[in-house]
Design a protein that fits this description.
The chain has 2 domains: 419 residues, Growth Hormone, Chain: A, CATH 1.20.1250.20; 52 residues. Helices cover 81% and strands 2% of the residues. It has a two-stranded antiparallel sheet.
Length: 512
């Protein structure tokens, strides 16, 4: 088989793996209200996301470094298998504890699949080709977004939410087979140092921080010795993590990459805007199903316009980057995100559906433009031997932004709802709120109780949406600090340097 044909098949496998991870996000978003209603309370919703995102955040830089040391292929296969196993277990979960544990396993797999997918593309395509292919890969999120919400709504309304996880299994095995068959790389033996100390301190420190953010003020008061201990312990461990990374020979988070302005700006904006993204994906279904009283299928339809916008933005972004540069392209994208966030914060229970469709499309367009740019920039600014680490670092900070975002938003949402309940002096239980999130069980509530619960949820979500506006505006401001230099020229120079280094390096990748 010709190298060109093999490269196309490898690209198809990578697109499939991206679809695997992308559809997971959109399918789960529409099913979350039903999952929470069946397995636990509204106050536990953050853990379904946080468990997945935390393990993804921790494993992403680790697998990115391992891909530089042991080769992309092996890490991709390991990650895909773990993701499939985690998906299968999530589909079999019978309680919230099991769901959280299985989501953590699923997140470990995603931490390998996503960065290695982008890294392989960075290896087998030159700069001009890379911009187009990365745009195509990013657009898969849009395609998955079209299928995922509708499929998730269909499964929840017609079958069971368990099936939203089972659909990942065939996609995972097919992509693994294609990579095994058509992607070959030669990895020479080399000295390998794994930053276990960094991984351990970060994992424990972040887990303690997330526990404090999610539980504080809800399950336990903020003054509780357990919460204080978690906050103090997380600070100590994360500070220790920082100093470990400064001295580690092979750090999981290569801090020196932040000295490159392109990388620093891209990661800073990626961190913040990812919080906006998880906020919209997580809470728009709650708005549709809880505030408006619609079904899961309708909730899925509400995410579809954003997916279409993302698809268009990703395709246009890869081409606009070459013609107009990174700053202009990223600024246009972030402007769309800001306008969408402001529009989102203005929603009310009487807002026409066309307004929701328009703001979701505009937000998706902005995300598609900006995320495509940031991914290409962090790859084109470094040499081959750290490209995997640089890509993983960017995925890491984006996942970290989502992790901290969903934890903080969840805490703020619950606090806002409880505050509204106390102000009204209403007798509302967690079970009542759980019923509101399920279309069928909501019918069991009295009209007065349903109106009150929807009012409380609307107030809480509106407060969260206002926070998203603030974060989006800050992200736009930071984007303006992106260098004006010609990114296309820089990409070509990096490719030329990489070609020279690769011929002398201890590891090389090629397609059969």
């Amino acid at each position: 088989m010709s190298p060109g044909r093999s490269r196309q098949l490898v690209t198809m496998a990578l697109l499939l793996s991206t679809f695997l991870a992308a559809i997971e996000v959109t399918v789960v978003s529409t099913a979350i209200p039903q999952i929470v209603s069946d397995l636990g309370g509204l106050h536990l919703i953050s853990w379904i996301y946080a468990a997945y995102l935390l393990t993804t955040a921790v494993s992403t830089p680790l697998f990115g470094k391992l891909s530089d040391l042991y080769g992309r292929k092996n890490i991709f296969i390991i990650g895909s298998v773990l993701f499939v196993i985690g998906s299968m277990l999530c589909g079999l979960a019978e309680n919230m504890t099991q769901m959280v544990i299985y989501r953590a396993i699923q997140g470990i797999g995603a931490g390998a699949v996503l960065p290695v997918t982008f890294t392989i593309i960075g290896d087998i395509y030159n700069y001009e080709e890379r911009a187009k292919v990365q745009g195509l890969v990013s657009s898969i999120w849009g395609i998955a977004g079209l299928v995922g919400p509708l499929a998730g709504g269909f499964f929840v309304d017609s079958l069971s939410w368990h099936w939203i996880f089972f659909i990942n299994i065939p996609f995972g095995f097919i992509s693994v087979w294609m990579i095994m068959a058509f992607f070959k790389e030669k990895v020479e033996p080399q000295r390998k140092k794994i930053d276990y100390a960094g991984a351990i301190t970060f994992t424990i420190g972040m887990t303690m921080l997330l526990f404090a953010l999610i539980t504080g003020g809800q399950g336990l008061p903020w003054s509780s010795p357990y919460i204080v201990l978690c906050l103090v312990g997380s600070v100590i461990l994360l500070v220790a993590f920082y100093f470990i990374e400064l001295k580690a020979e092979e750090p999981i988070v290569p801090l020196e990459l932040f000295r490159i302005r392109d990388v620093a700006v891209s990661n800073a904006v990626g961190f913040l805007v990812s919080g906006v993204l998880i906020g919209i994906n997580s809470y728009m279904p709650l708005w549709i199903q809880g505030v408006l009283g619609m079904k899961a299928t309708d909730s899925g339809m509400s995410l579809t316009p954003m997916s279409i916008g993302w698809l268009i933005g990703a395709i246009v972004g890869g081409r606009l980057l070459i013609k107009s540069g990174a700053r202009i392209t990223a600024t246009l994208g972030m402007t769309g995100v800001v306008i969408g966030a402001v529009w989102l914060a203005s929603l009310s229970a009487t807002t026409p559906i066309w307004v929701i469709i328009a703001l979701m499309f505009l937000s998706g367009l902005g995300f598609g433009l900006s995320f495509t740019v940031f991914t290409i920039i962090v790859q084109s600014s470094v040499a081959w031997n750290v490209r995997g680490a640089s890509t993983a670092l960017h995925t890491f900070v984006r996942t970290l932004g989502q992790t901290l975002g969903i934890a903080a938003f969840g805490t703020y949402l619950n606090a806002s709802i409880m505050s509204a309940v106390k102000e009204q002096g209403a007798a509302v239980t967690d079970e009542d709120l759980n019923k509101l999130l399920s279309h069928e069980s909501a019918q069991q509530l009295s009209p007065d109780m349903m109106a009150s619960l929807r009012s409380f949820l609307e107030q809480g979500l509106s407060n969260v949406f206002l926070i998203l506006v603030v974060i989006a505006v800050i992200s736009l401001i930071i984007t303006l600090f992106m260098p004006k230099r010609n990114v296309q020229t820089a990409g070509r120079q990096a490719d030329a340097a990489n070609t020279s280094e690769t011929s002398e390096s201890t590891s090389s990748s090629n397609i059969i």
